[in-house]
């Protein structure tokens, strides 16, 4: 297609404001999928979506659209990941586009990720098309939200397009705006090939499929290609576009978006942000800004039943095929046996992975409390990075410990400023600024240690603001902190998987809360079980789980049989997730207890 007739764009939105629905609706409006496909897709459950998902929910769909000027345009819709953890991936996807449709829910108004995504889109120099969605809802206030968009973001209210992605109302106007406002791709057709990899997935038949935007030059099949950052040469087995299914083509020209089947077996080799060039005629410079994804949060993941260790390894191997950011290595815990130390981009990524392991691979897992990556300066001047409390060297060898801090932006109705301030202060947060966006809404900016953010912060924020606040965060740097390791002893035995690193000022409070909580979740045994929190040799808090009374069932004898059965069933259920530690059984909740003491 003639470069002048290409438009590359993405859709940015706060979660649930209707990005996917609008995307589907654009596909219907251009005849790329049928109304029936759209309905089916909406009704899809997880499994189905996964099976067909890669093709239908491809993250770069080509549509052909005949505009009112009579000309046919090639519109490439590039999807961006929805979670804050994937900021880097979002940025790369934005760099593959020239424009962005900004979707704001007409019943909700602007939220934290609306802003965060908009700033990223502006950084990438994208032309913005503001849209107010869900105008079919009775609670919709499209004029008010359009005004908010004008006041806060500076786009004239009359240019904001009111749409319903659900009914399709005014969706045609959005397509027209894409053609009229989004500039065609620039880029030099005669220069050596440079294609940006902005996503990838693993296909069992064709190997890793790289999603690319051709920036300069052109791509053809059977060319010898080179991944510049990875330093790997490949042959393009197949190239094509998603329309919406994978459709092979002979060439991808300058400015076009499509895929390259690389034949490679590991997504880790095809990193988002890498540049593809010709092996025989390489570009002088790769496209700027490549950085490999770096995990920020680590947790131990163990099978409840030690026999499932190999299944867990297989499941992680399979997940990794499609998740280049997932890293893991075997880890041994005295308490939990053989498992893995797994690294994640952030909390949401961690939740997604844990849930997939359990749901899709049917594994019964115990996850330890998450840890951030600490930098430890040793007295001998050396600096090491650790991602598990167990790796912390002896205090006598430590000069200083540094921890990662985040810049956190919270968007909230002003009624909740008090409760948010309190939450953030409890979490060692440092106030940076407060901006009123209108009479009722404020944007609060704080600096907060990541370790405080990964422990139940988001849920607390939601519950303290009745779900009204939204947040976004970015890494801001490492800072020294007065940090100590808090060990937990159950029945006099230290349980490595329960150790945490805490700020010294909070050690007593956290230690006390943790042993109290453990007392509640550790079932009674035949004997008394002391639970202690200690820093080094010094015990700072203690609780005791009293011994079991003679017979739990005694009081049921001769009485209600169903009640007795229920009791036994309940015990059986509880067993599923018990780990035997010496002679004490510790349930899964114990390992997550630390998440509930923030
Ligand atoms: P994430 O995938 O979580 O980022 O959300 P999203 O922004 O893609 O939102 P999605 O398209 O999944 O829509 C969220 C919810 O809003 C769904 O229940 C949709 O059915 C609904 N929705 C989307 N657009 C409209 C609309 O125009 N009208 C109405 N009434 N509901 C809509």
UniProtKB/TrEMBL annotation:
Positions with a binding annotation for GTP: 16-21, 133-136
Stretches assigned to the Tr-type G domain: 4-186
One MF term in the entry's GO annotations: GTPase activity
Membrane topology summary: Peripheral membrane protein
GO CC, alphabetical: plasma membrane
Entry keyword annotation includes Mitochondrion: no
CDD domains: EF4_II, EF4_III, LepA, lepA_C
InterPro entries in the record: EF-4 (IPR006297), EFG_III/V (IPR035647), EFG_V-like (IPR000640), EFTu-like_2 (IPR004161), LepA_C_sf (IPR038363), LepA_CTD (IPR013842), LepA_IV (IPR035654), P-loop_NTPase (IPR027417)
Superkingdom per UniProt: Bacteria
Main location, first listed in the record: membrane
EC number: 3.6.5.n1
Name of the top EC class for this enzyme: hydrolase
Compartment(s) where it occurs, according to its Swiss-Prot or TrEMBL record: Cell membrane
Key words, A-Z: Cell membrane, GTP-binding, Hydrolase, Membrane, Nucleotide-binding, Protein biosynthesis
Catalytic activity line of the entry: GTP + H2O = GDP + phosphate + H(+)
GO biological process: positive regulation of translation
PANTHER family registered for this protein in UniProt: TRANSLATION FACTOR GUF1 HOMOLOG, CHLOROPLASTIC (PTHR43512:SF4), TRANSLATION FACTOR GUF1-RELATED (PTHR43512)
Purpose: Required for accurate and efficient protein synthesis under certain stress conditions. May act as a fidelity factor of the translation reaction, by catalyzing a one-codon backward translocation of tRNAs on improperly translocated ribosomes. Back-translocation proceeds from a post-translocation (POST) complex to a pre-translocation (PRE) complex, thus giving elongation factor G a second chance to translocate the tRNAs correctly. Binds to ribosomes in a GTP-dependent manner.
Family under the similarity heading: Belongs to the GTP-binding elongation factor family. LepA subfamily. Belongs to the TRAFAC class translation factor GTPase superfamily. Classic translation factor GTPase family. LepA subfamily.
Protein name: Elongation factor 4
């Amino acid at each position: 297609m003639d470069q002048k007739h290409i438009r590359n764009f993405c859709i940015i939105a706060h979660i649930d404001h209707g990005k996917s629905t609008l995307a589907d609706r654009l596909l219907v409006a251009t005849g790329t999928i049928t109304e029936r496909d759209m309905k089916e897709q909406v009704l899809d459950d997880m499994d189905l979506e996964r099976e067909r998902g890669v093709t239908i929910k491809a993250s770069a769909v080509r549509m052909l659209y005949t505009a009112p000027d009579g000309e046919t345009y090639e519109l490439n819709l590039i999807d961006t990941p929805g979670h804050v953890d994937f900021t880097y991936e979002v940025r790369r996807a934005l760099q593959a586009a020239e424009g962005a449709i900004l979707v704001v829910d007409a019943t909700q108004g602007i939220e934290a990720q609306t802003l965060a995504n908009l700033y990223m889109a502006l950084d990438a120099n994208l032309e913005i098309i503001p849209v107010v969605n869900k105008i079919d809802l009775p609670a919709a206030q499209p004029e008010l939200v359009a005004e908010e968009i004008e006041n806060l973001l500076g786009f004239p209210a009359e240019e904001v397009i009111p749409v319903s992605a659900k009914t399709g109302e005014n969706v045609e106007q959005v397509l027209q705006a894409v053609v009229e406002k989004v500039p065609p791709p620039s880029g030099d057709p005669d220069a050596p090939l440079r294609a940006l990899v902005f996503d990838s997935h693993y296909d069992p038949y064709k190997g890793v499929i790289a999603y690319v935007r051709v920036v300069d030059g052109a791509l053809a099949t059977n060319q010898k290609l080179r991944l510049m950052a990875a330093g790997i040469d490949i042959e393009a087995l197949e190239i094509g576009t998603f329309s919406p299914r994978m459709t092979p083509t002979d060439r991808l020209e300058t400015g076009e978006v499509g895929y390259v089947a690389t034949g490679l077996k590991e997504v880790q080799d095809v990193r988002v942000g890498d540049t593809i060039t010709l092996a025989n005629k390489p570009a002088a410079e790769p496209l700027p800004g490549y950085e490999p994804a770096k995990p920020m949060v680590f947790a131990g993941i163990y099978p409840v039943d030690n026999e499932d260790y190999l299944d867990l390894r297989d499941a992680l191997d399979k997940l990794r095929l499609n998740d280049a950011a997932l890293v893991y290595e075997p880890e041994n815990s005295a308490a939990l046996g053989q498992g893995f130390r797994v690294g994640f981009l952030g909390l949401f990524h961690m939740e997604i992975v844990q849930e997939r392991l359990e749901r899709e691979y049917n594994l019964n897992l115990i996850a330890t409390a998450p840890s951030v990556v600490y930098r430890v300066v040793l007295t001998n001047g050396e600096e090491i990075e650790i991602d598990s409390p167990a790796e912390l060297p002896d205090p006598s060898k430590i000069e200083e410990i540094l921890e990662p801090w985040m810049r956190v932006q919270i968007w909230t109705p002003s009624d909740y400023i008090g409760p948010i301030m309190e939450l953030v202060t409890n979490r060692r947060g440092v106030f940076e600024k407060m901006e009123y966006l209108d009479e009722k809404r404020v944007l609060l900016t704080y600096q907060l240690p990541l370790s405080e953010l990964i422990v139940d912060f988001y849920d607390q924020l939601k519950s303290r603001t009745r779900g009204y606040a939204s947040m976004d965060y970015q890494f801001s740097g490492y800072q020294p902190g007065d940090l100590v390791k808090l060990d937990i002893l159950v029945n006099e035995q230290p349980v490595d998987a329960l150790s945490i690193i805490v700020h010294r000022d909070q050690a007593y409070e956290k230690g006390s809360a943790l042993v109290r909580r453990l007392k509640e979740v550790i079932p009674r045994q035949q004997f008394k079980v002391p639970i202690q929190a200690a820093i080094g040799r010094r015990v700072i808090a203690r609780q005791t789980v009293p011994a079991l009374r003679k017979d739990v069932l005694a009081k049921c004898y001769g009485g209600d049989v169903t009640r007795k059965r229920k009791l036994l069933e309940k015990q059986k259920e509880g067993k599923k997730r018990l780990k035997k530690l010496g002679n004490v059984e510790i349930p899964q909740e114990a390992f997550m207890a630390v998440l509930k003491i923030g």
